[in-house]
């Protein structure tokens, strides 16, 4: 009785108070509760994380803490602590979401949070953005996530989540991004996934999902990017998809879909990637695909497709990767494939294709990977394939090809892998093969080839399986008989002719023969060490080492062409010397580097010691390395002769606003790849790694196609041999690995560091300078919110990269940062770098404009 009477009296003072301090009093109090809830959560986290948060959450006003944003009433709207990696460890169990009624943005990705995603996350009724990606959450996705009606972005990528996707996720009518890739989620995709009509990105790749495509996706016009690959989806996809005006990328590979390819894909005007490999798709490839004019990547490999390759596909000018291998396609390869001028990779292997290899494939000048193996192609190998000078890997094995290997294959200087096995090729291997120094793996077995094998490591070291079962190959390799005569001069019919000539000589004059043999033996002995290049020593001390030129004449021509090194012909000044342009009487234009006095003396004094290395440099052939033609050493002047590279150095291009704009993101990425290729080849493509020692934007030249060409490879070793004094001599300030300050060891890892600097420079448009010290001063000390955004440091002369370029820039920047590691042992090798750059980049988990420089350092 008494308590009932007391109650109203107790309420009065409270009401009075609240009207006095006006209406916000309740929110001030609730904001205190918000701060308290955060501190309570902090107290349950890992000890180191508490220390970290104590430094980030400094001061009494929690609205001023790192990662916290409040509204005008002081209530928290934004909690954003992402990218702390191992430094943010713990669970979410004690983060009591009931205290955050106004939170709209919760971003805790890229940390080390574990445990279940608590069901009370559903208390955040105003949330529009929820990112818990790249953590270690396990258990199932709480169905309470669907009490979050305003949610627009849900990202749970790369956790260890199991169970099913809650069916009622379809009730989130404003959901635009749903990212669940790389978990262990089972069951079906919810039926009404796109009921709100605003779903743009759906990525659930690499899970354990089953069942068919929900029918709500057929009319989901908003879709932009869909990634369903790597699950156990089933169902007939003939009619499962509709027409999508915005669709850019769809990945359905590695599932159990069946049915036929719909011609409707051709009505998706913005489709750039259609990937449906490794399913059970049957029927023909619809020619209507040719209407999707932006298509750059089509992967239909490992299905049951039949019929011919539609010639209409030749209209797809943007096509760069076309993979149709592992089907039952028949008929001829349409010659229209030769119209795909942007093609980089073409794989038609393991089909029933017949007829000839189209000759106009030579027009696909960017093609670096070509595989036609395991078909029934006939006729000869068209010599025009040798125009595809970018070719890295060529596989024509297991066909019915006849005739000889084209002489012109010597032009394929970038070739690393060649498989011509199991055909009916005859004749000898063209002598021009001796120029294919990049060749690493070769298989020419099961043909009818004869004559000597080329003078290349790839051949000597090949197993009998790779060379055997031919007509009569000879040479110094396992299982082959040695060649009867010195092999250098033999080609095609050489062997037989020589035997006949010998017989004639024997018949007519035995004595003369003996004399000739003795004389030629003498000449041979003298000539052996000069190999293909010619080294000539003149009585007055000139030495010319040249490839494919007459040394003396070249020297005279160069003096004449530059009017004895007149400044009129000077085109720049590079490391070690001044560069001149010289037009030779043959019409060829070369770059001539006249050495500075210091290097000149050094060279003359050490000439003998380095001759073999110079000869080795002359023989290097790689599409990303500037070809050295020769050098001349003379008491008056010494110079190196190089191929002229049109656009000059990367640093010059970047310093010119017009040219820098021309060098767009795709070209810049290509420059980085080219540089990585060159370094990987020099570090790993030889028995002894060749270290550059002075990689900088001055030594990376750009040709007319903006392809990177590294200059001065190996010259540091020749021109600066004083190894006790390396630290003062090797490298260019700003590109030198930090360990050189205290060690004198110059190895491949120094080049890796310099590569990192140049890569960042390519993206920033200028030398990274201060950014390097920012990166090395470990971002632990920089509050996350104050860290630099990637978009703010990259070159502002270009608009920010989009779609594929954006993710490739992110990947390449991550790789570059790994190369800048202070500890040389933790830097990747150039081979790993090159591989990482050629792999398909991961999709961005956050928009490009929000990516922080420090985030790229953490992984
Ligand atoms: C916020 O914190 C900064 C330092 O972290 C301080 O300089 C500033 O005065 C604080 N502002 C408020 C309103 O507390
Ligand atoms: C929340 O904070 C993050 C990181 O600072 C920021 O990117 C995002 O735009 C903020 N969201 C809102 C709604 O303020
Ligand atoms: C908060 O979440 C819990 C667990 O889901 C739920 O039982 C409770 O009703 C929610 N409270 C509010 C106010 O939404
Ligand atoms: C969904 O978005 C629309 C437009 O932005 C907005 O008007 C509506 O309130 C949102 N719905 C919910 C449940 O938040
Ligand atoms: C994922 O969860 C399973 C149990 O659900 C556990 O055995 C496994 O170790 C977890 N994996 C990782 C990487 O945390
Ligand atoms: C989701 O929507 C369906 C109707 O579309 C409704 O029956 C169901 O109760 C809703 N679920 C939740 C959890 O709101
Ligand atoms: C994958 O899903 C199937 C059922 O669809 C289930 O039997 C299996 O255990 C799941 N695998 C994993 C690793 O969760
Ligand atoms: C297609 O892409 C272009 C360029 O990216 C864009 O301007 C256009 O709006 C897109 N069309 C549709 C329908 O999304
Ligand atoms: C797939 O569906 C299409 C049309 O819906 C039908 O014509 C075809 O027979 C189906 N294929 C299979 C294998 O069931
Ligand atoms: C044969 O090749 C091996 C290496 O594969 C080399 O050591 C050897 O000197 C070669 N012999 C001749 C005669 O060239
Ligand atoms: C900051 C502030 O005004 N806090 C108030 C919260 O409410 C209690 C009473 O419930 C007051 O005593 C506090 O002063």
TrEMBL record:
**Which Pfam families would you find in this protein's record?**
LRR_1 (PF00560), LRR_8 (PF13855), LRRNT_2 (PF08263), Pkinase (PF00069)
- Cite the binding residues for ATP: 594
Gene3D superfamilies from the entry?
Phosphorylase Kinase, domain 1, Ribonuclease Inhibitor, Transferase(Phosphotransferase) domain 1
Q: How does it sit in the membrane?
A: Single-pass type I membrane protein
Which residues are the signal sequence here?
A: 1-27
Q: Which SMART domains match?
A: LRR_TYP (SM00369)
Q: What is its main location?
A: membrane
Instruction: Report the SUPFAM superfamilies cross-referenced here.
Output: Protein kinase-like (PK-like), RNI-like
Sorted alphabetically, which InterPro entries does this protein's record hold? Answer: Kinase-like_dom_sf (IPR011009), Leu-rich_rpt (IPR001611), Leu-rich_rpt_typical-subtyp (IPR003591), LRR_dom_sf (IPR032675), LRR_N_plant-typ (IPR013210), Plant_RL_S/T_kinase (IPR051716), Prot_kinase_dom (IPR000719), Protein_kinase_ATP_BS (IPR017441)
- Enumerate the UniProt keywords alphabetically: ATP-binding, Leucine-rich repeat, Membrane, Nucleotide-binding, Receptor, Repeat, Signal, Transmembrane, Transmembrane helix
Q: Where in the cell is it found?
A: Cell membrane; Membrane
Q: Which PROSITE patterns does the record match to this protein?
A: PROTEIN_KINASE_ATP, PROTEIN_KINASE_DOM, PROTEIN_KINASE_TYR
Question: Where does the record place the Protein kinase domain?
Answer: 565-842
Write out the transmembrane intervals.
499-523
Q: What is this protein called?
A: Protein kinase domain-containing protein
What lineage does the source organism belong to? Eukaryota, Viridiplantae, Streptophyta, Embryophyta, Tracheophyta
